[in-house]
Specification:
This protein is an all-alpha fold and about 220 residues long. It is built from 10 helices and no strands.
Length: about 220
């Protein structure tokens, strides 16, 4: 039986589902036990990560000019990062972060290494698989955080909108990912071994991100 993109995406996403033990911070936020300064650090890191990820996705789109389906996928992700960036200031403000504090903030090394390497080095089709699997884990974390912010920290809908955005159904990006992976399968451009390796790399960076926030240097 010919393997479909949908089957492959489901398989790799399941394989890369995070080990709960690798992320001690989100359960603490879910229980209302994380200090508000940790939430502030999360907001401050995201003020750097979101624009950096947007540029990385645009770079992947540029490198995908011969693969229109992958180009469309990464362009959609870049547009999503732009929308997420509009929702971030309300969360930062609820955490007590103003523009002066954000401008003076020095990012933590363990939080800033996400997709830049893939943007420069990975084959676009392989990166589609890795990034899609990672977004599944990130979306789950965002759903948990959004609920906890309302329940335990008294944040309103505007302050939670950043996490609500990522927690919601991916919709068109998921469909674009499936089209990009299917086109790569049909053309023989997809290297599943490399895609899995990139997915594990992103999974490790994701775990490092949360561990660093929990115990900043």
């Amino acid at each position: 039986m010919t393997r479909t993109a949908r089957d492959l995406l489901r398989t790799i996403t399941a394989e890369l589902a995070p080990d709960p033990r690798c992320n001690p911070l989100v359960p603490r936020i879910a229980a209302g036990e994380a200090d508000r300064e940790v939430l502030a650090a999360l907001a401050l890191e995201q003020t750097r990560i979101i624009p950096a990820d947007r540029r990385a996705f645009l770079q992947l789109a540029v490198r995908s000019t011969a693969e229109p389906e992958a180009d469309a996928y990464f362009t959609a992700l870049a547009e999503g990062e732009a929308l997420a960036r509009q929702r971030l200031p309300a969360f930062a403000a609820a955490c007590g972060v103003d523009q002066a504090r954000a401008a003076a903030y020095t990012p933590l090394p363990g939080c800033q290494a996400y997709v830049a390497w893939l943007a420069l080095n990975a084959a676009p089709a392989d990166a589609v698989l890795a990034v899609t699997a990672n977004f599944s884990a990130w979306g789950g974390y965002c759903a948990t955080i959004a609920a906890a912010l309302r329940t335990h920290y008294g944040f309103d809908d505007e302050a939670c909108a950043f996490f609500d955005f990522f927690a919601g159904p991916a919709g068109e990006p998921d469909r674009a990912a499936e089209r990009a992976v299917q086109a790569a399968l049909d053309a023989g451009r997809l290297d599943e071994r490399r895609a899995r390796a990139y997915g594990h790399l992103l999974q490790s960076y994701e775990a490092l991100f949360w561990r660093t926030l929990e115990r900043p240097a």
